[in-house]
């Protein structure tokens, strides 16, 4: 029983730490970044980090070992920069609406039987 309590406490601490990390991507942080570096530089950084994400995906597809951590890092970089761009252009809500529309479209496509999946 003591082990279970210990695991629950550990999990709760980990969960709080993750929530604290997620909160670091706040509008205040994004504003500071845009104010310091400007939207143009952050857009260029988004291009650069997106390229690094593409490279990480490519390496995984080629079966490179121990590359998953790089994928995680690049996703985090891209997501933080996307957050800054959404903040700078005040488009966060519009992106959520579009994302919801695309999710609905994807769900419909999954129901269709006409798609032929090619496996490599």
Written account of the structure:
There is one protein chain. By secondary structure, this protein is mostly helical. The chain has one domain. The protein is built from 4 helices and no strands. The longest helix has about 35 residues. The model has no long low-confidence stretch (mean pLDDT about 85).
Describe the structure concisely for a colleague.
The protein has 120 residues and is an all-alpha fold. The chain contains 4 helices and no strands.
Order of helices and strands: HHHH
How many DSSP E strands? Answer: 0
Oligomer: single chain
| Low-pLDDT sequence parts | none
List the helices and strands and how they pair.
Elements: H1 2-23, H2 27-61, H3 68-89, H4 92-111
Helix pairs in contact: 2-3
Sum up the structure in keywords.
mainly alpha; 120 residues; 4 helices
């Amino acid at each position: 029983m003591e082990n279970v309590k210990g695991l629950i406490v550990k999990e709760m601490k980990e969960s709080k730490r993750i929530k604290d990390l997620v909160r670091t991507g706040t509008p205040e942080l994004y504003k500071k970044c845009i104010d310091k570096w400007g939207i143009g530089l952050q857009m260029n950084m988004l291009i650069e980090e997106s390229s690094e994400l593409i490279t990480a995906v490519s390496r995984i597809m080629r079966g490179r070992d121990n590359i998953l951590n790089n994928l995680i890092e690049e996703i985090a970089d891209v997501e933080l920069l996307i957050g800054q761009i959404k903040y700078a252009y005040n488009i966060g809500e519009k992106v959520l609406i579009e994302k919801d529309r695309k999710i609905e479209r994807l769900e419909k496509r999954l129901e269709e039987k006409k798609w032929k999946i090619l496996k490599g």
